[in-house]
Amino acid sequence: MIAKIAVEKTSIRFDRLFDYAVPDHQQAQAKIGCRVSVPFGNANQYRQGVILDIKNDQPEIKLKTIAGFLDDQPILSSKMVDIVFYLVHSTFCTYYEAIRTILPAGFSYFLKKSYQFIDRLEGLENYSPHQLELLSFLRKAANQQEVDRIVQHQLESGRRADIDFLIQQQVLTPSVSSKRKLGDKTVNMVKMTDPEFDPSSCKLSQKQKKVVSFLLELGAVSIKEVCYFCGVTDIVVKNLAKQGIVTLYEQEVYRTPYEAATPTRKPELVLTPQQQEVLDGLLHQYYTNRPSVALLHGITGSGKTQVFLKLIEKMIQMGKQTILMVPEISLTPQMLQKFQLAFGSEIAVMHSSLSMGEQMDEYKRIKNGEVKIVIGTRSAVFAPLEQLGLIIMDEEGESTYKSSDMSPRYHTRDVAKYRCIQQKALLLLASATPSVESYYAAKQGVYSLYELNQRYADAQLPEVTLIDMRQEPSSLITGVSEYLAEEIARNLQQGEQSILLLNRRGYRSVLSCVDCGWVAECPHCSVGMTYHRANGYLMCHYCGYSQELPKTCPECGGSHLMLTGQGTQKIEEEVQQYFPDARVLRMDADTTFTRAALESKIQSFSKGEYDILIGTQIVAKGLDFPNVTLVGVLSADSMLFGDDFKCHEHAFSMLTQVVGRSGRGGKKGRAYIQTYNPDHPVIRQAASQDYQSFYQDEIVEREAFFYPPFCDICLVGITGRQEQQVDIGARLFLTVLKQATKGLRQNIPMKVLGRSKPYIYKMNNKYRQRIILKCRNNTAFRQLMRKVLVYTASRKECSNLHLYCDINGEIN
Ligand code: ADP
Ligand code: ZN
Ligand code: ZN
């Protein structure tokens, strides 16, 4: 029997399934989806692996043998194993990267059992010599960790029978390690400063190495969890922080998912005729045409969520399960609440802000078939549901559905399609502003199309006014016209709420020198640092680096330093000064560390505890506040002129969505868009919430300039610490690609757009270059690219570089 095994810590350069022999007496235990420990490489170090296939062949060469089995039952079902293969074939990832993405964070640490040792003197005559030796080792163990280490070693070296014997003698009692309890208001968290940190690049102690490899695998974890699972004290972690290798921060604890789990008796939800028509259509499609994809284009406030509720209710009646995805963590609580009221506690939540313990618990509940609905962000698409009937992607055009900064670089929509085909389920994409690709597919008849073009209860779409900033005098609030300031005042008088949207790029406080033009930049990234009034520090939003405000210019020594730009904090202060009685709330999406705090802020605003909400992109979408009757966009212009072919789509979507936050309750809403380009078609179309005319213009342009959906875009990324090496690596890739494609053009159409530097050229001390190709994303193309990628990456010029390919990701 040969087991084909995905092994951890392989690189794309030599990744494949590795063949191992299964010992005769363990053939019953060897199942696809089980984790094993195997000797690997020349040094035969033990590594963890997962069996992905089993063959009953005679091996042609002598194989290494599996050392130990870590699971009794497969941790991956056969359906999940298929998804692993799908990810490997459709993105450019390794097998183990795919497995790690599918399983909840920390699975390999969580399933580690702990063994309690009780010394017994009776029955020793039944022990074999090895078992006696083992017993004497256990007696000498200094603490629990050492006991576990001894047992682990035995298991990994194939001596499971001896351990089983000791368990039977009640000398060892296995227990699953306990998990962190949530009681604290904030948790001290730790993460790698550089997620691609190379542990061999500096000297680390044994304990430090453990912590680093733990964090490299898990991303961000609480300090408690790190200490617990690595068996170190927090001093180890703090020392790593001093060296800048890891970053410490505080995170507010999310409300535990099941606080409000009891469904209340509520008036029966009655759909409007238009909503009912959509529901009937979707159900008909489900009954007759599975698997298939439906696109629901419904204007903001048209009741898409109500249609979801009814559809899921039907799924539950048929014994089918649903995955419902939202693009942002901050949107899960609102969604969750609506669904808990309707369906009680048979809901699981999956997103990265849950603690490792909670993620694991939720995973188990899902795997055990205890839930009917899974709500979450994009990782929810991997929820191991065996009775899947429906996947819903709300705001399907959002870029957060694309995984871009880590391998596998998949698009959630593609994985969702794969799962729906696999399980004969329905995929429902929904949005007020669908992506151009999806709408095109619907128009072509590939997806079925449903439209909701009325707001519920005759609620009117807000009246939108464009404010021409070239003409309009400014008020005392920087960046706010007099006109808008008056309207806000009017809203305050009427006791109604307002939202002000800032666009991030234009609103950062940057420190610069008046004399020589020096700008405070992060020493690790090629971006300006932002001044934070709250702590008086300059901070980098990309790597978390912070420093005190310098008193003199480091370049010329002059003392004329100036803060420019209008940070959200500055605007908040000015708004507060201008309206001293107003209760002002600021939501800063820039500082990723306080992301978790958003939920409580959203709650307070929703309860009417604030009058004005100021924020960046994060306030624009999805939220449902009935008392908001005014929305002001302070500057629409920077969105219009990006270097991404999708910038018009993003601008239209953002403006339409934020305008749609206004007037969702009974009252008439208003929206104001300040702009220096009041005649720009995208501004006009967003103002009139006219998706159709936006789409018409955009699709013509995409076709003319040959962009998706008429082709696919493949981005090749090259990063490394040496600027020159990155340059050489990028050139080499192009050369190899050119040679590989000689004469192939007919079969594999592609066009190399060339080499360029991204907007942030240096991040976390790493230089970045990219090559962009237009292509057809099919098997032949991906096979070719994989070959080119692996070949280039294996060359010695690239030994210190990281190379990757990303299809249809963000090119910014
Ligand atoms: P969308 O998701 O399309 O933006 P929502 O589903 O959030 O819209 O609906 C907007 C508002 O209208 C919500 O407050 C919702 O409760 C209400 N609503 C929509 N349809 C109905 C209905 N059939 N019955 C009761 N309330 C509804
Ligand atoms: Zn200067
Ligand atoms: Zn930085």
From TrEMBL:
<feature type="binding site">
    <location>
        <position position="543"/>
    </location>
    <ligand>
        <name>Zn(2+) 2</name>
    </ligand>
</feature>
<feature type="binding site">
    <location>
        <position position="556"/>
    </location>
    <ligand>
        <name>Zn(2+) 1</name>
    </ligand>
</feature>
<feature type="domain" description="Helicase C-terminal">
    <location>
        <begin position="548"/>
        <end position="707"/>
    </location>
</feature>
<keyword id="KW-0347">Helicase</keyword>
<dbReference type="InterPro" id="IPR001650">
    <property type="entry name" value="Helicase_C-like"/>
</dbReference>
<dbReference type="Pfam" id="PF00270">
    <property type="entry name" value="DEAD"/>
</dbReference>
<dbReference type="InterPro" id="IPR027417">
    <property type="entry name" value="P-loop_NTPase"/>
</dbReference>
<feature type="binding site">
    <location>
        <position position="553"/>
    </location>
    <ligand>
        <name>Zn(2+) 1</name>
    </ligand>
</feature>
<feature type="binding site">
    <location>
        <position position="540"/>
    </location>
    <ligand>
        <name>Zn(2+) 2</name>
    </ligand>
</feature>
<keyword id="KW-0235">DNA replication</keyword>
<dbReference type="InterPro" id="IPR014001">
    <property type="entry name" value="Helicase_ATP-bd"/>
</dbReference>
<dbReference type="InterPro" id="IPR042115">
    <property type="entry name" value="PriA_3primeBD_sf"/>
</dbReference>
<dbReference type="InterPro" id="IPR005259">
    <property type="entry name" value="PriA"/>
</dbReference>
<keyword id="KW-0378">Hydrolase</keyword>
<dbReference type="Pfam" id="PF18319">
    <property type="entry name" value="Zn_ribbon_PriA"/>
</dbReference>
<feature type="binding site">
    <location>
        <position position="525"/>
    </location>
    <ligand>
        <name>Zn(2+) 2</name>
    </ligand>
</feature>
<feature type="domain" description="Helicase ATP-binding">
    <location>
        <begin position="285"/>
        <end position="452"/>
    </location>
</feature>
<comment type="subunit">
    <text>Component of the replication restart primosome.</text>
</comment>
<feature type="binding site">
    <location>
        <position position="522"/>
    </location>
    <ligand>
        <name>Zn(2+) 2</name>
    </ligand>
</feature>
<protein>
    <recommendedName>
        <fullName>Replication restart protein PriA</fullName>
        <ecNumber>5.6.2.4</ecNumber>
    </recommendedName>
</protein>
<dbReference type="Pfam" id="PF00271">
    <property type="entry name" value="Helicase_C"/>
</dbReference>
<comment type="function">
    <text>Initiates the restart of stalled replication forks, which reloads the replicative helicase on sites other than the origin of replication. Recognizes and binds to abandoned replication forks and remodels them to uncover a helicase loading site. Promotes assembly of the primosome at these replication forks.</text>
</comment>
<dbReference type="InterPro" id="IPR041222">
    <property type="entry name" value="PriA_3primeBD"/>
</dbReference>
<dbReference type="Pfam" id="PF17764">
    <property type="entry name" value="PriA_3primeBD"/>
</dbReference>
<keyword id="KW-0238">DNA-binding</keyword>
<keyword id="KW-0547">Nucleotide-binding</keyword>
<dbReference type="InterPro" id="IPR011545">
    <property type="entry name" value="DEAD/DEAH_box_helicase_dom"/>
</dbReference>
<keyword id="KW-0639">Primosome</keyword>
<comment type="similarity">
    <text>Belongs to the helicase family. PriA subfamily.</text>
</comment>
<keyword id="KW-0413">Isomerase</keyword>
<feature type="binding site">
    <location>
        <position position="513"/>
    </location>
    <ligand>
        <name>Zn(2+) 1</name>
    </ligand>
</feature>
<keyword id="KW-0479">Metal-binding</keyword>
<keyword id="KW-0067">ATP-binding</keyword>
<keyword id="KW-0862">Zinc</keyword>
<feature type="binding site">
    <location>
        <position position="516"/>
    </location>
    <ligand>
        <name>Zn(2+) 1</name>
    </ligand>
</feature>
<dbReference type="InterPro" id="IPR041236">
    <property type="entry name" value="PriA_C"/>
</dbReference>
<dbReference type="InterPro" id="IPR040498">
    <property type="entry name" value="PriA_CRR"/>
</dbReference>
<dbReference type="Pfam" id="PF18074">
    <property type="entry name" value="PriA_C"/>
</dbReference>
